[in-house]
Design a protein that fits this description.
mainly alpha
Length: 74
């Protein structure tokens, strides 16, 4: 993220993926996002993951647990 700064270098303008990251399209995708989209893009990606987790937890806890019905029928 050091070369990306606040706003990043722009999409497909990152330099890390050329020679520095061994597999830029797999495990190191967040490093590419940070360099190309900057701190703002990285915060947006993290916020989207947090929102996805909160939505999943909200959906899970809004419904009653029905696993006991499964065990009674067996």
């Amino acid at each position: 993220m050091g070369t990306g700064g606040w706003h990043g270098l722009g999409l497909m303008e990152g330099r890390q993926k050329l020679f520095y990251l061994p597999e830029p399209h797999t495990d190191f995708i967040f490093a590419n996002v940070c360099e190309e989209l900057g701190l703002i893009g990285a915060v947006v990606v993290i916020a989207l993951f947090v929102a996805l987790g909160i939505a999943g937890c909200a959906r899970r806890f809004s419904r009653p647990i029905r696993s006991h019905a499964f065990w009674r029928s067996a």
